[in-house]
């Protein structure tokens, strides 16, 4: 009985092979529309697409560099997980479907906005494989569909004047230019992108260029093939009047060099302006391979296609960008080949697994290739931007909001700052080895932020739950106020903090303090677990000042650092008015004693009426203070210890 409804829908489906719909069939389509309306939005098509796993996309298209008109076919191969009589996919409703063919038989279909429902003439059972070929044509432009533009665009460069047509499918816009299933966790095993275009054009895409076929009418066809798993939004195309600039990288442990193919606008001044950065890509790729494991697609290539767009897009094995002369952008998109392409975020809510790591890749390559000062300046900028949003979490719950997904302050910069702190928390060895282990565990698949947490916990043996809760799933950052004082061989340190957002009031984190001393520097490493904490550090060095996190590992603000003679150790300051602590004799002559103080270590300080310290010392348990040398007058005794802070007044008599 579970298939009866689907068969009834099939019976009412459009019984034509094109978009010519008879009045009778129009009624059947309305039935399907009503069926969808009774459920939550997209529930029905999602359930249909969940019945199969995609294995292969074969795009065989006609594209020119100056138009968004597209024609050709897409062959979609899939494996059935559950029985079905209806095959569902997404396609831009501006595009005309000429036919849908299965086993050389034309199939009927119906359309509802961008959803296409193919009524298969054969009932498909689980374990069946399906190879459906969709022929289509039309204008593929959809305004504002993607993260930083349209899914399929033809534009003129404002900088160089060149024209190119290119795709940008992230996050939900692959359907704008080819039939697809936009489920992140369903990667295709491989993909072919064949493009026929004018002889003056070149075509860039994923994988290896296996050949260029000369065709009639001054056309040729580029045949690109990738044999690595690939997510729908990473399949790409770029068509332009390009020149080719090739380099080779040679990471350790790779037998053959890795080819780097750059398609640049075909004019000498373009290459001249971007060549210094392009020539550093070999070092970038080798550096990332050393840090995170060999370039994941080393059997194919890496490369760039220039296109008139803002920013860049990390299409698998061939980034699309116009800014090929920007060091940090090129580093960002290259880092994506590990974080985003090799391992892809499991849901769009986990997008900082892609963008936060790619942004941190910018810092790493500045650190490794450009020097500490440039890297430090970069992290200062990252942390400043990360602090601009304290009302949202890095994890994205509203995944339908593209601007929220690609929020500059959170997804990119706070994500990068958090990963920087994770490196500090784990240490160099555990961080880089743990990341290589994580990438290996989820290679060519998808992972969530929690998957990252569990992988690093398994590798390092550390409990990272508080860290992930407060940083990836919490809001804001800690704001510190620090007090310190040295008494003899002890440094008394009070660390107070609050959250910039009330949603995350407490941050548990390690933190470093560096004291400048008379003979050098003293580093103090402490673990913060509460909003108000006290530490005592033994040292034989005299400290001159104190710095908080001088290497800038933590995303934080520091409101104040002050040396405080009245350092409060254990509880808020208060004057003793209820005589819990007794001082006698008062007035005193030769000495005074304090009774009812807490046992343990502490110290006292006597201040005159001008607030000047005239006597100080430490004590243990019992306190007797000699005062015979003090001038007659009124004084205060300040007593501070592990669990107490008292101020007592007394009079010295002659």
Write up what this structure looks like.
The chain has 654 residues and is α+β, with helices and mostly antiparallel strands. Among the domains are: 241-337, Zincin-like (2-Layer Sandwich), CATH 3.30.2010.30; 344-471, Neutral Protease Domain 2 (Neutral Protease, domain 2, Orthogonal Bundle); 478-563, Immunoglobulin-like (Sandwich), CATH 2.60.40; 582-652, Immunoglobulin-like, CATH 2.60.40.3080. It is built from 13 helices and 36 strands. The N and C termini lie far apart (106 Å). Residues 1-41 and 568-578 have low confidence and may be disordered.
Approximate helicity band: 10-25%
Give a short account of the largest sheet. Answer: 8 strands, mixed
Structural class: alpha+beta
Distance from first to last alpha carbon: 106 Å
Number of helices: 13
Question: What is the structure about, briefly put?
Answer:
With about 650 residues, the chain is of the alpha+beta class. Among the domains are: about 240-335, Zincin-like, CATH 3.30.2010.30; about 345-470, Neutral Protease, domain 2; about 480-565, Immunoglobulin-like; about 580-650, Sandwich (Immunoglobulin-like), CATH 2.60.40.
